[in-house]
Amino acid sequence: MPPEPQDRAADPPEGTADASGSPAANPYAHSYPHGRFTVVEVSGELDMATVGSLAEHLRAAAERPVPDVLVDLRGVAFFDGSGLRALCRAESGARERGGRLRIVCDRPRIHRLLGAAGLLGRFPPLADLPPASDPERGSQRGPKHGSGT
Questions:
Q1: What does the radius of gyration of the chain's CA atoms come to, in whole angstroms?
Q2: Average pLDDT of 87-110?
Q3: Rounded to whole angstroms, how far apart are CA atoms 87 and 29?
Q4: Looking at the DSSP assignment, which residues form a beta bridge with residue 69?
Q5: Sign of CA dihedral 27, 90, 72, 98
Q6: Which single residue of 1, 3, 9, 34 has CA 20 to 30 Å from 96?
Q7: Distance (Å, whole) CA 40 – CA 25
Q8: Which residue, 83, 90, 9, is CA-closest to 52?
Q9: Contact in structure between 44 and 75 (CB atoms under 8 Å)
Q10: Which residues of 35-65 are buried (b: 16+ CB within 10 A; e: fewer)?
Q11: What is the pLDDT of residues 3-19, one digit of tens each?
């Protein structure tokens, strides 16, 4: 007997992982592969009300085997201590798995926030995304994706 329409599994709640295990894109963050990196691109205002949307992407990226995560903050208009906490947690998780988490940021305000928090040494900002083929040099910008890949 075929299943009735009401027997169909409910769609996952918005903001949960897709079939590949990647978090769904949301207004504040989306993730995509860039060579050996996982880029978490952040936009808008990042504060206590929105940091959960970023944290979901950071956790997923940092939990991969030997993660190499780039957090692109160039589209961020506002960033507070809750965002710093999320970065520190994800960076610790990546390091525990033998990987790393770095930020890409050209905004002086965020540089000052990192400096005031004593985190510039932990997160020395890259000015741009490294090319996918050479993780230590270059300045290629990754593609904008509308999906949560």
A1: 17
A2: 96
A3: 13
A4: 38, 101
A5: negative
A6: 34
A7: 10
A8: 83
A9: yes
A10: bebbbbbbbbebeeebbebbbbbbebbbeee
A11: 444 433 333 344 445 44
Task: Name the token pair of 76.
Answer: 């961020």
SS3 label, residue 8? coil
Per-residue tokens: 148: 């949560």
Q: Is 114 in a helix, a strand, or coil?
A: helix
54-67 per-position pLDDT tens digit: 999 999 999 999 99
| Residue 68 C-alpha from the chain's centroid | 11
Run of H or E residues at 42? strand 37-46
pTM higher than 0.90: no
Extract the tokens encoding 6.
């009401």
The burial class, CB within 10 Å (0-12 / 13-18 / 19+), for 135 is middle
Which tokens is 106 given? 């050209």
Q: Which residue has the tokens 């989306």?
A: 30
Both structure tokens of 32: 């995509």
Only one residue has tokens 């050479």, namely: 134
